[in-house]
Amino acid sequence: MRRLLPCGGQAGWWGLVLSLGLGLLASGCGGRQPLPPSVPLTTAGPLWQQLHLRRQAFQSLQGLVRLQLRAPGQRLALDTAAVVMRGFEALRLEGLGPFGQPLFLLILAEQQLWFYTPQERTLVVGAATEDSLVRLLGIALSPRVVPYVLIGDLPLETLPAAGTVAYLAAEGHYRWQGTLPQRAGRYAVWFDAASWQPVRFETYTPSGVLALRITYDDFRPSAPFTVPHRIALTQPLASRHLVWHYSEVQMNVEVSPALFHMRVPAGTRRLSLEQLSGVPGLPSTSASAEDAVSSSRQNQPRADRPRPAS
Predict the structure, then answer these.
(1) How far, in whole angstroms, is CA 223 from its chain's centroid?
(2) For residues 214 and 148, what is the distance between their CA atoms, to the nearest angstrom?
């Protein structure tokens, strides 16, 4: 039988154990190194195909999130907001206070935007455009691509079909670079080399200045695929930063179409986006007990509030 002890007897054996232990300790202190793929991709085709299949499989999303937003003259911090999406066509976001009382309700559907604040008894209505989201929430994204981002996809309505991709061995990522559709500038996407999940998306101005960065992390399985539970969006030129952190999320559950129809109490003041100056009723810090006392239940929007199924 072949000897298992290394040469040098017991002393050599313990020397091997000690060296292995120190090696494991060093690797633990230095963090887990990414495992390289056996055969790195040279074309981005499989990466785009995986995203395409994810889009085909996605039907709906329902979950609870924590929100943090910083923008010039605007700060928003919410411990709880309920989000519901029906495919990529409709989105509902409701900010909730510490006792579950509604603070605001945003609905994007049929290329329209409705934004209701119960405490102000005000409903803002307008076209769902990038400018609308900037004016309301300080987010410079087209409403058409927001649902893609919130499931861990890219803010691109049309995905590329082919092209070369670079393998960054030190990072354990693939990187794709392309030209932005219908606008000047370029973009880059980083994919995890093992899972092929997007982990970073950046856009640049024609002069090469970073305009937008989206990072995806804290990936967790949620059938039928994996979803990043933390999504951060930064726009350095406008000093905007948004962190979207799921505390609960469920995919492809039954969603009522009624959730995307705004119904408000009689006597609600109606404004167009052109009439809007500031954002009525949005909390500037985390919702407190005082918010709950001042919020009257008779001002709640008449729509069933979604909760993740147990």
Answers:
(1) 17
(2) 12
What pLDDT was estimated at residue 30? 41
Other CB atoms within 10 A of residue 37 CB: 14
The answer to whether residues 268 and 125 touch, using CB atoms and an 8 Å cutoff, is no
Q: In this predicted structure, what is the pLDDT of residue 161? A: 81
pLDDT at 24: 32
φ, ψ of residue 54 in degrees (nearest 5): -60, -40
Tokens of 48: 């785009």
Is the bond preceding residue 224 a cis peptide, omega within 30 degrees?
yes
pLDDT beneath 70, residues of the chain: 1-36, 181-184, 276-310
Domain ranges of the chain: 45-296
Predicted pLDDT at 295 = 38
175: how many CB neighbours lie within 10 A of its CB? Answer: 15
Contact in structure between 261 and 123 (CB atoms under 8 Å): no
| Per-residue pLDDT at 225 | 86
CATH number of 45-296: 2.50.20.10
**DSSP per residue, the chain:** ----SPTTHHHHHHHHHHHHHHHHHHHHHH-PPPPPPSS--SBSHHHHHHHHHHHHH--EEEEEEEEEEEETTEEEEEEEEEEEEETTTEEEEEEE-TTS-EEEEEEEETTEEEEEETTTTEEEEEE--HHHHHHHHS--S-TTTHHHHHTT--S-SS-----B-EEETTTTEEEEEEE-TTSSSEEEEEEETTT--EEEEEEE-TT--EEEEEEEEEEEEETTEEEEEEEEEEEGGGTEEEEEEEEEEEES----GGGGS----TT-EEEEGGG--S-TT--SSS--HHHHHHS-GGGS-SSPPP----
Looking at residue 183, what is its pLDDT? 65
Q: Report yes or no: 166 and 178 within 8 Å, Cβ to Cβ.
A: no
pLDDT, residue 294, reads 38
pTM for the model stands at: 0.78
